[in-house]
Amino acid sequence: MPAMRILLAEDEQTVARLITRVLASMGHEVIGVTSCSEAIASLSADGFDLVLLDLHLTDGDGYRVVDAIGCLQGVAPRVVVMTGERYPEDDPRAALVAGILRKPFDIDDLEQVVIRFGT
Does 109 reside within a domain? Predict the structure, then answer.
């Protein structure tokens, strides 16, 4: 699998450090943010292959980020939502979400999701 540029939107620092360490060990570049505003600003400025998105961030829910991705010009990155809640499949934004990583997850689950949706 080629190295990817991944945006990690996760406000729990312990979780973010673990995910970053795992993804870096897989050879990927990880840019971490802790809020919807930071994620949206990063998406506007930088090209990403994959977004790992916690739905509950410090300044609101991650659906704002999904909406912003839907408005991007050109090729939008794939989005994997990280949540402990049931993701509403009937939500109109569900078409923009490539996958769901249920919290709590283990390292193997994370690696498999990145391999599956990052290609």
Answer: no
